[in-house]
Amino acid sequence: MIRTPLRPLARVLKAREKGENPAAIEAENKRRRHEEMHDKAKNRAEGRLLVLGGVFFLAFSAIGIQMGVMASTEAEEPTAIATGNPIIGQRADIVDRNGRILATNFDTYALYAQPQQMVDPDGAATKLAEIFPELDRERLITDFTGSRKFVWIRRQISPEQMQAVHDIGDPGLLFGPREMRLYPNGPVASHILGGASFGREGVDSAEVIGVAGVERQFDQYLRDPANEGSPLALSIDLTVQAAAERVLQGGMMLMNAKGATAILMDVRTGEVISMVSLPDFDPNSRPQPLTTGSQSDSPLFNRAVQGVYELGSTFKIFAIAQAMELGLVGANTMIDTKGPLTWGRFRISDFRNYGPQLSTTDVIVKSSNIGTARIAQEIGADRQKDFLSSLGFLEPSSIELSEAPSGRPLSPRQWSEISTLTISYGHGLSASPLHLAAAYATIANGGTRVMPTILKSSELQQGPRVLSPEVAAEAVSMMRQVVVRGTASFGEVPGYEVAGKTGTADKPMPTGGYYEDKVIATFAATFPASAPRYVLVVTLDEPVETSGTEPRRTAGWTAVPVGAEMIRRIAPLLGMRPQVDMADLTGVTLTSN
């Protein structure tokens, strides 16, 4: 900005020439300068007032809008904000492979008492005993009238029970919020899920911890806040699991069995699609473990994983497959089946006399103990042990269940020649049905080792090769003949090309030896035989089929029909279309109306 001088020299000289007063020039210039400064200050003040007025207008408008919104909404009672950290955050859900809920959380309340605040301890105890019949009235009176300052009454109560306690009206009865685990499908997949219980407890919250199954195996994951509540996705298909449980329950009752288990596994990924163990339980009210007798009699016992049994003739396919892999036999090699086969004081015989010779295929089809034992002699103890080890039969299953380590197979301390003979047809080595399912999946998928998993996975397993693809395919073809014309003829399901092997093993007595009238019956199958997708293992504990004049206990009469019905029911649920053979049109003449 250019400022005008108060006493310009040119004007001062000119004023002096005319006799005027130069001071008037300075006064005039001061006046003009002050007027300019006043005008600028006035304009600046007016701008500031305009901006301030706009700000006040917007603020009052916002307040007015908010008051209007509050006036138009329904009034709510204010709630207090709790301070402090809870014991633990919310536990993540467990879902099946399609995202359907298997385990979730439910908000409930615990009931406790502060006796020093109670008005009528005797009356409250009487009414509580009426609401909760399992409570002892006299014990409650003792707790309420003694020196105790805090008494737990119930760890969790229903809304109806909470209202009934409210109606008592005693100020010493108080409620604490907490979260409980809920299994909306009841007993379905109970042995897989396991169950949960309370750990550390406080008045305002409680720690939910897994006690068995995947709840215990993945307890840290389910409780980890870093996962932001992401659900744990299992490989189980809830629809298939429910159907398998229903079929197996009916089969167990029809065959008068003590217990039963069934496992369905994807041979490509190792995913367990269904795993059933009966009898089962409701994880919402998990029973207590047995304190006397055998734990295998408890509904908590998972027969699929913890049950270690001699699985009988289902093992024969392993001996045959190994012999073919070693080049000792082919599918049509004739095997000496004259019996009995004597080794020291032991005699090995067949269920029937199958003649002096059978082909390798017919050794499997007829289920010849003698033929399988003679093949095992050619294999030898060391090679047999190594092969069964490569199939996983000498170590606990790696499946992600907390009970898996307890299902350790039982093998002989000294793997003698007689052990080699008996193990070849399923006696002398005990393993779980899950071990058997994984081994059959190894054969069905072309000969690469399969590791079972309970977690959802879309990746094909690329385990170590155990058998060549040609030998694995030949083994499946032999098992197909077992269903078409052998001991598993009741296992045929039209449209699904079932291949499988039966196994009937005498049940050992706790004191040694074997029962004469109790067996473990097993049917291990894969389908469809032309391109195996799934393996199914069905095992019945002490079955007996009584529709005929004499009781029948072999797997062909007990486990096989149950397995066939299960495939018939679940194959469509798996999205598998039945393969229908077209009729022979030879000799048919096309005519028109």
Question: What do you see in this structure?
Answer:
It is a single chain. This protein has 593 residues and is α+β, with helices and mostly antiparallel strands. It has three domains: 1-38, no CATH class; 94-233, Penicillin-binding protein 2a (Domain 2) (Alpha-Beta Complex); 239-287 and 294-312 and 320-330 and 387-411 and 431-574, DD-peptidase/beta-lactamase superfamily (Beta-lactamase). Helices cover 35% and strands 19% of the residues. The protein is built from 17 helices and 18 strands. The chain has helices spanning 9-18, 22-72, 121-131, 137-145, 159-168, 190-193, 213-217, 219-223, 238-254, 316-325, 360-366, 369-379, 381-390, 417-424, 433-444, 469-485, 559-570; strands spanning 94-95, 101-113, 151-157, 173-182, 195-201, 206-212, 232-233, 259-266, 272-278, 309-310, 334-336, 341-343, 346-348, 357-359, 430-431, 499-508, 514-527, 534-541. The strands form six sheets. Strands 1, 2, 3, 4 and 7 form a five-stranded mixed sheet that branches. A five-stranded antiparallel sheet has the order 9-8-18-17-16, with helices on both faces. Strands 5-6 form a two-stranded antiparallel ribbon. α10 (316-325) packs antiparallel against α16 and α11 (360-366) crosses α16. The longest helix has 51 residues, at 22-72. The radius of gyration is 41 Å and the shape is elongated. Mean pLDDT is 88; it is low at 80-88.
Integer-rounded radius of gyration: 41 Å
Helical stretch tally: 17
The share of residues in extended strands comes to: 15-25%
Tell me the helix content. Answer: 25-40%
Uncertain regions spanning at least 5 consecutive residues: 80-88
For the record, give the distance between the C-alpha atoms at the N and C termini, rounded to a whole number.
Answer: 112 Å
Supply the helix-strand structural class: alpha+beta
Summed over residues and divided by their number, the pLDDT gives a mean of 88
Beta strand count: 18
Biggest beta sheet attributes: 5 strands, mixed
CATH homology superfamily name of the largest domain: DD-peptidase/beta-lactamase superfamily
> What is the approximate shape?
elongated
CATH architecture of the largest domain: 3-Layer(aba) Sandwich
**Given this structure, which CATH class of the largest domain is correct?**
Alpha Beta
CATH fold-level name of the largest domain: Beta-lactamase
